[in-house]
Amino acid sequence: MDFIKILLHDTTWSFAIEIVIRCIVMYVLIILVLRFSGKRGVRQLSIFEIAIILSLGSAAGDPMFYDDVPLIHAVIVFAVILSLYRLTTYLMMKSDAIENILEGKPMYIVKNGLLIVEDIKQEKYSYDEFFAEMRQKKIEHLGQVKVALLETDGNLSVIPFSKENIKWGLPIFPDNYKQAEEHIIDHHYSCMLCGHTQLLNNLSHNCPRCDCTHWAKSSLKCENN
Ligand SMILES: [Zn+2]
């Protein structure tokens, strides 16, 4: 076993430089794809950390069992990817414009119990993804939500109303988030698209906020607080 061979195999300077260029191209490509997929980070990971994991994953794995892939290739890949990561975080720290382009801004999903429809459409998320997140935070309906903010890392921050400020709101559990079939006098109804909530004379009314005609029976009860 020759350690120099394991480390270098027949790597030439020109191929070492080629690896550097390949890394830069792939890193930029991965960031672009992640950024324009419309999704933000996955849970705690920003798109940059995902890019690093994707880039390094294969670079780390191949030299482990391909006898003609020398370690030096992985070392170069690691060095280049980490430098690019440091460079992007540095640029984002220095420039708000670059940060906004690469990472997006925190975005309001719910304000005052109402869904911010335009922003949600723009982010290509489905309602159910937000509803699921809110359900996990013990929210039953939007009348309980003062603010829900989608952070740049993909996490949803939810600020609930204090108990005495809870209003009628759009239910977010599947059993209740459905179009009302019969009209009940003196009951609140919530627009299924934007969360606007009011008393209704009939169910063919258009939502004054978004013009939608799908109404769900509003919820008020809240067993958790
Ligand atoms: Zn509406």
From TrEMBL:
Transmembrane segments: 12-34, 46-65, 71-88
InterPro entries, per database record: DUF421 (IPR007353), UPF0702_alpha/beta_dom_sf (IPR023090)
GO cellular component entries: plasma membrane
Gene3D superfamilies referenced in this protein's UniProt entry, alphabetically: bsu07140 like domains
Localization per Swiss-Prot or TrEMBL: Cell membrane
This protein's UniProt keywords: Cell membrane, Membrane, Transmembrane, Transmembrane helix
Domain of life: Bacteria
Entry membrane topology: Multi-pass membrane protein
Domain YetF C-terminal, chain residue ranges per copy: 94-167
Protein name: YetF C-terminal domain-containing protein
Organism: Acinetobacter pragensis
